Amino acid sequence: MSLLEAGNVSKSFGGILALDACSITVEQGSITGLIGPNGSGKTTLFNVMTGYETVDQGSIHFDGKPITNLAPDRVFELGIGRTFQLTRIFPRLTVLENMHVAAQRQGIKALLSRWSLSHEQQRALELLDFVGITQLKDVPAANLSYGQKKLLEFAYILIAEPRVILLDEPAGGVNPTMINHLAERIRTLNKNGVTFLVVEHNMEFVMGLCSTVMVMHRGSKIAEGTPEQVRKNPAVLEAYLGD
Amino acid sequence: MVKKIGLVALLAVFIIFPQVFSNPAVTTIAVFTLLYATATTAWNIFSGYTGYIALGHAAFFGIGSYALAIMCKEWQIPGGYIPFLLVPLAGIIAAAFSVLIGWISLRTRKHTFVVITIAIFFIMQPMAFNLRSITNGSVGMSLPIPIGWGGVFFNMPFYYVALALLLLAIGVSWSIRNSKFGLGLLAIRDDEDRALGLGVKTGPSKLIAFVISAFFVGMVGAVHAYFLESIYPAFAFDPLFDIALALMGFLGGLGTLAGPILGALILEPAQQYFTMQFSQNGYYLIVYGGMFLTIILLLPEGIIPTLNKYWLKWRANRGGRTDPGEPVLSGDGGSKDGMKS
User: Which strands sit side by side in the sheet containing A220-225, from one edge to the other?
Assistant: First the structure.
């Protein structure tokens, strides 16, 4: 069953068509890879699926329900979390405070209660432990290294317990040890039922992690299949090497 | 524990102060200082926490002033303690205006927002001049004079009312700083779109913080008006008030709890003192400006964050850190861009 679905989505910026009738489906419980040359529209697709950009045409469905052009806070509440290519953490908040931003709860009483006494505190500490940055909890997030910021962004998404997580280049600029560490965490979460859609240029990472890989070129999907199938697909080779 | 004793001692000093230094010249400065500390603390709840620098809060100060003056006139309230009871009502009236003003101005961000708040302020001042049937125009309005509060005693009720307002504002600011709501405001300051993408209700959060700050500034305006016993459009809606709040906030440290209070405690007495000393020739403005320049150049982040940084550095150098992680603390504190937003 498809959990997240984009149907014929188009989006242009000025005269540039970033997405051209693009359709993809992400199966429930999968780790799906999304690859493609620079400028092929991967990040734009992430943006329209998470409400950061509106679509010009087409529709987005999550769990069978339309979420086209919903505001980002609503999309997040429905259970779609994402990270950014260039991490977007809150630099002047401490690591632990960062964790609690995503743990927003409805209702005035919950909002006015002290975040440090909330029942999410235990969970926030567990998740920091899960990604391995507990010792940095009281440090301003600006002081983290690049890789640690990626781990923090990953961890604070998890506190809201999303059903699907969109990762935009999680391995970019991260050292090999950290990449393995991250892949392991993704597999663990996937076993517990979290679906992943991963944009990544590191082919080894994608091919090792994903069951299905989709390839984008010039704003639409040109191929889909297992890592082996995609690797041999002439259209994919053309897209990466051709012109 | 040490911190608690320190705070109680500090509070005791504030309570005893006018009894020890009862000279009206001193207590007058003290009343103004407490009022500015309250207003800056309230302004910081919005501008400090969200990073949206509002330069139009004088509008709420003026609305609070006129609200109290008009209520006293219409209901023929005599001088004494009763006008103090109407101060919260003046605050609510200012807050009601702020809902509309905030709803309009918060559609914009960053620099545009600053310009919009200034523009709205400059709409209010001519209105106070020209809506003569309500405000009495440039003639101004007078407030009831408390009969029998002569000499040394006159400033006392104002001092304690201002102190109560300040304590209330600090309490509200503290609980917001430690709440999930406050965390959402700080997240807006750092990356508003990301905060929205993590479920923070950014629009309502900003508006609520704006209205809370306007409520307190309105009350400060009301007490200020009653203290001076008369108001005029040019003084009730004074652009220097906006500058003062921003200066005090920046000096002490934007977005911190103690910063705005410290900023007001330093700048307001200094300004009052210089006004008294050099008022004939206007030199006080030069002294005031020069002092401000010096502080901003030496302490660009404000006093509290700078002290905090030195304190952390000192502790780290003593080997007090118990951080087994990688050497990650090489980066800058990240709050340097606090001045820009």
Answer: A80-82, A164-168, A195-199, A31-35, A212-217, A220-225
